TrEMBL record:
A Pfam family recorded for this sequence: Acetyltransf_7
The N-acetyltransferase domain, residue ranges: 22-148
Protein name, entry field: GNAT superfamily N-acetyltransferase
Keywords: Acyltransferase, Transferase
InterPro entries in UniProt: Acyl_CoA_acyltransferase (IPR016181), GNAT_dom (IPR000182), NSI-like (IPR045039)
PANTHER family from the UniProt entry: ACYL-COA N-ACYLTRANSFERASE, GCN5-RELATED N-ACETYLTRANSFERASE 2, CHLOROPLASTIC
Length: 148
């Protein structure tokens, strides 16, 4: 992982629109939290063992927490050197519109440093990522098969 022990960023502050009780911190969710948050936004999940392996193989993760409740998550996957891909940017519907997704993505980009960071975005969220500095590439997403 790229993380540095003890790193965390408190959400809130001027212009961020997030309540002070919500924090954005480095880390990964538990398997149960991961599956629950994906379900909350209507995303399917593979079984617990596949989710555990996916989380364990993350390069880095960030969590948004409202006290102890998981409000959001985002992960970096890849080889940690040349290829980094942002995945699983999810904010619980009850916490959407507060800037948490923006803070989590910015934290992952900050951790990636000078390395190139990519992501795959559904058409309806492309403008969100463009506001964060991502540009549409000329390549096309291609899939061979889906796990899960």
């Amino acid at each position: 992982m790229i993380d540095r022990p003890g790193d965390h960023v408190r959400a809130g502050g001027a212009g961020l629109g997030a309540p002070a009780a919500v924090t954005v911190e480095d880390g990964l969710p538990t398997v149960a939290e991961y599956r629950d948050l994906r379900a909350a936004v209507g995303w399917p999940s593979p079984g617990p063992d596949a989710c555990r392996a996916a989380l364990e193989n993350s390069v880095h993760g960030v969590l948004a927490r409202d006290r102890r409740e998981l409000a959001g998550m985002a992960r970096l996957v890849g080889d940690g050197v040349m290829y980094l891909l942002i995945v699983d940017v999810v904010v619980h519907p009850g916490h959407q519109g507060r800037g948490l997704g923006r803070r989590m993505v910015r934290r992952l980009v900050e951790l990636a440093g000078a390395r190139r960071v990519q992501l795959v975005a559904a058409p309806e969220v492309v403008p969100f990522y463009e506001q964060l500095g991502f540009v549409r590439g000329t390549s096309h997403l291609m899939a061979y098969r889906t796990v899960g």
